[in-house]
Amino acid sequence: MSNQNLSRDEAAARSALITTHSYDISLDVRQAADPGVAGYTSRSVITFSASEPGASTFVDFIAGSVHSVFLNGKGLPVADVVDGSRIRLDNLQPENQVTITGTALYSTSGEGMHRFVDPADGQCYLYTQYEPADARRVFANFEQPDLKAEFTFHVMAPSDWQVSSNGAEVLRTQLTSDPATSRWDFAPTRPMSTYITTVLAGPYFKARDAWSGTLADGTVLDVPLALYCRASMAASFDAGALFGLTKNGLSFFNELFDFPYPWGKYEQAFVPEYNLGAMENPGLVTFTESYVFTSRAADSQYQARANTLLHEMAHMWFGDLVTMKWWDDLWLKESFADYMGTLGVDRTTDWDTAWVNFANNRKAWAYVQDQLPTTHPIVADIPDLEAAKQNFDGITYAKGASVLKQLVAYVGFEAFIAGSRQYFKDHAYGNTTLAELLTALSSASGRDLAQWARQWLQTSGISTLSSEITIASGTANADELGAVAVLQDAVDPASGLQEPRPHRLRIGLYDFDDAGALVRSDSVETDVSGDRTDVTALAGKPRPALLLVNDDDLSYAKVRLDPHSETTVRSSLDKLSDPMARALCWTALWDSARDAVTPAALYVDAVQRFGPAETGIGVLLNVLGNASTAVERFVPRGARDTVRRCFLDTAAEQLQAATPGSDQQLAWARTLAATSRYDAARLDLLRGILDGSTVIDGLAVDAELRWNLWHALAAHGQASQAQLDEELTRDNTAAGKSGHATALTARPDASVKAAAWDAAVHGTGLSNQLLSATIAGFNTGAAALLARFIDPYFECLEQVWADRSIEIASRIVRGFYPAGQDLDGHGGTPETHPVIVRTDRWLAAHPGAPRALRRIIIEQRSHLHRSLKAQALDA
Fold first, then answer.
1. In the predicted model, is pLDDT for residue 875 greater than 80?
2. What confidence score (pLDDT) does residue 834 get?
3. What are the pLDDT digits (tens) for 126-183?
4. Which pLDDT belongs to residue 702?
5. Are 270 and 231 within 8 A, CB to CB?
6. Chain centroid offset of residue 293 CA
7. The Cα angle at residue 465 between residues 563 and 613, in degrees rounded to 5
8. pLDDT the model gives residue 826
9. Can you tell me the distance from the alpha carbon of 87 to that of 9, in angstroms, rounded to the nearest whole number?
10. Which helix (H) or strand (E) holds 395?
11. Is 419 exposed, middle or buried (0-12, 13-18, 19+ CB in 10 A)?
């Protein structure tokens, strides 16, 4: 474990010394279905050059065992050259070939080669997931993004399986000595990084199609397409819709980027227990199988899936064709893909709310992350792989995409695309940093972007924009605007420094029309910079009912409503007809509650009043989730029961009142179940829905909803293990096992909580998905029931981090933090709350703990402190 955390300096030294050319990888997974077989034979043949003959370097391999190492035909003593996860290579020649054979281990953590047994039919499935550095768990390699090479894969597997990799299948041979086994040989890839190589193997259901497009020069590009999912999910697999999105995306991006899709085939696999939404492996993209909707899904979920599909497709150019040199510039791929995913949905599908959902969901993620004390610039300082793992966050994805959206407005869309096209041509199959991208964009736009990059990419924190309004005096119209200024507060949470940034804004003026709708009556665009910007263009205009700063969501900033506008929004939000303006007002209300500017109970009240009229299902699901958070974390304990009961009553009423079969009905049903985990008033209704004695017209009581209802009943001790086991029998699927685990551990029993703690923290039998399900159930409970685990939590942190993989350790550390605390009953201030004090004591006593571990603890402390601060205001 000690030498798995590759540093940036070590990676730079290695890439200065060697140049990789090719890998030939052989994997033998024919015995994967046998649970008694922990690993598989892995053989890597690597050819590479060295700039300093006689020098030394190392290969990365996190293996069960290393069998042999041959360097330039000479066998090396394994005991001498293998040190943990590194294999030392001495006396390098100008041209070298190293062959390393060992036993790699299957994982249940979603890292490396993940092995999953489908509870529905007992079938075994394999897939790989590597980002940022887990290819070394599958085959020996130089694990860093700037050492690209061509990869050729060979896989031995059961003959009746589907097997795929990045390259096209060129030969499949059934072994004469063992007809039950076949060997798959795949074509060499174009140069790529280790972390985007991949292998898929198992009895997957496979659908085939093809896309053909004519390029600008008249060349016809033919791309074979395929989709995979587990056999037991095939009946729910809407392959036709997915192929349609894929073809539209390939047509769009090939034309937009003017660089032919570079990876041959385009396959997409939906795999179980996936740690991410998706991964951009060239030629074989992997997705979480939660995108295969086996239960009723809202339209916004289908749109989110389309966004992810197009996000990953954009990576074929941004990230795969041109890749960052090191993880500092992770944004070079993720920010672009996040922006392009939304652009793709907007341009290639029938959904017209792509940018509304971006503003309401993706940017909300960034706003939360950017207010943490661990926030960082978009171009981050990533000293090692552990830091890289933690940086797949709202800053790198959503803030970066937001800033790119601003850049497009600044330089113009055509210039932005022209610069991107030149970037691909100049650096195809290579690695870059920020400098190369700015060169291309500056050249295309004619603008020097160095200052823009410094202000937006190399600073951290979020600006808060508000308006200062005076009403004109001495005029016939007392409701005429006098002076209007936009104020900017831009404190960096990490440094405490003020970092005002330039913003190009639209300020919208909204008034009620004759029909009573709140509509835009006027708008002005203006540049904002510094702490205060006077907007002279507004002087003399009639005072609007609502003055909306950052109308149309042109900039990345939080917005505070002026008192007059806030009164309008809190009384008439449902009258605001424009979906984007409405989403921005919802966000302003939520930010005000999160920041303890206004009581959280007011936000819950707004959701109860105006949520039933919200037509955007993505927005509705988001605000209902925010309201649940406000109730359980931000409203003080003394008022919580009353506020929660009112919210619960609204959910129950709207479940009955919503249009039968609508997405809104589904949203209120989910909210009813989630809120009922903490209030027993509607358990009879939930039980009736479960057993069929209560029928809600149009409501699909499918597996996902049933488990949500069981979770609520279990949280009140009204679901026995026998009942939950019986439900699992009727839904013996991967999702069913997760729902079962959550409901079991939600029961309010000290022995149940202790068993869940031991299984998660001390045991190793839980897969990544079941670990998260167990943690979710554990945390469903009163703080008093969980108080006994506070000290053990802090006592186990370093051991957990040392003993478990970073993925599993991160889930444990983040998930078991005692976040569900109340200020009531403890007295004092948020800073003196016992859990805050305990956290601070641990941080002070462990200054040398791994940075990634400390980051999680600091972030969890910040979330708790924010909730206690909101409770203090509400009280």
1. no
2. 96
3. 999 999 999 999 999 999 999 999 999 999 999 999 999 999 999 999 999 999 999 9
4. 96
5. no
6. 19
7. 60
8. 79
9. 18
10. none
11. buried
Angle 565-566-567 from CA coordinates, rounded to 5°: 90
CB 5 within 8 A of CB 144: no
Enter the tokens of residue 260. Answer: 């032919």
Q: Tell which phi-psi region holds residue 169, choosing left (phi > 0), alpha (psi between -120 and 50) or beta.
A: beta
pLDDT > 70: percent of the chain: 99
Alpha helices for 20-126 (secondary structure H): 78-81
Asked whether the beta carbons of 203 and 160 are under 8 A apart, the reply is yes
| 787-792 long-range contacts, CB within 8 A, separation 24+ | 787/818, 788/750, 789/753, 789/757, 789/816, 789/818, 790/818, 790/834, 790/835, 790/838, 791/838, 792/757, 792/761
Residue 475 pLDDT > 60: no
DSSP helix/strand/coil, 679: coil
How far, in Å, CA of 356 to CA of 582, rounded? 9
What is the sign of the dihedral through the CA atoms of 506, 509, 515 and 517? positive
Is 195 within 8 Å of 333 (Cβ atoms)?
Answer: no
- Tell me the CA end-to-end span of the chain in Å, nearest whole number: 47
Classify residue 9 as exposed, middle or buried by CB count within 10 Å of its CB (0-12, 13-18, 19+): exposed
pLDDT band (50, 70, 90) for residue 468? very high
Percent of the chain at pLDDT > 90 equals: 93
Structure tokens, 2 = 């000690």
Helices (H), 146-220: none
Per the annotation, the verdict on 312 as an active-site residue is: yes
- Classify the C-alpha dihedral 396-399-403-408 as positive or negative: positive
Q: Do 338 and 706 meet the contact criterion of CB atoms below 8 Å apart?
A: no
Burial of 705 (0-12, 13-18, 19+ CB in 10 A): buried
Position 790, amino acid: I
Q: How far apart are CA 101 and CA 63, in angstroms?
A: 10
Q: Write down the mean pLDDT value for the chain.
A: 95
- The tokens 């960082």 sit on which residue? 376
* Angle at the Cα of 366 from the Cα atoms of 319 and 775, rounded to 5 degrees: 95
| Token pair in block for residue 640 | 């919580």
Q: Please report which helix (H) or strand (E) contains residue 553, including its range.
A: none
pLDDT at 639 over 90: yes
Pairing of strands 220-229, 205-214: antiparallel
Judged against a pLDDT cut of 80, whether residue 477 lies above it is answered with no
| 503-512 vs 518-528, strand pairing mode | antiparallel
Which residues, 6+ apart, have CB-to-CB distance to 179 below 8 Å?
Answer: 159
SS (HEC) of 169-188 = EEEEEECCCCCCEEEEEECC
Alpha-carbon gap, residue 450 to 452, rounded angstroms = 5
Among 215-224, 264-273, 468-477, 709-718, the minimum mean pLDDT is found in 468-477
pLDDT at 391: 87
Residue with tokens 């803030």: 399
* Contacts of residue 855, Cβ cutoff 8 Å, sequence gap at least 6: 374, 387, 390
122 torsion bin: left (phi>0), alpha (psi -120 to 50), beta (else): left
Task: Judge whether residue 198 has pLDDT over 90.
Answer: yes
Kindly name the residue from 267, 273, 289, 312 that is annotated as catalytic: 312
Q: Which of 89, 4, 77 is nearest to 47 (CA)?
A: 89
Residue with tokens 């006098």: 482
Residue-by-residue DSSP string for 241-258: HHHHHHHHHHHHHHHHH-
Would you place residue 476 in the very low, low, confident or very high pLDDT band (cuts 50, 70, 90)? very low
Angstrom distance (rounded) from CA 18 to CA 52: 8
Cis peptide upstream of residue 132 (ω within 30 degrees of 0): yes
Query: Tens of pLDDT along 214-240?
Result: 988 888 999 999 999 999 999 999 999
What is the average per-residue pLDDT within 453-471?
93
Q: Is the pLDDT of residue 314 over 80?
A: yes
Eight-class DSSP state of 440: H
Residues 6+ positions from 57 with CB-CB distance below 8 Å: 14, 17, 18, 50, 88, 89, 92, 142
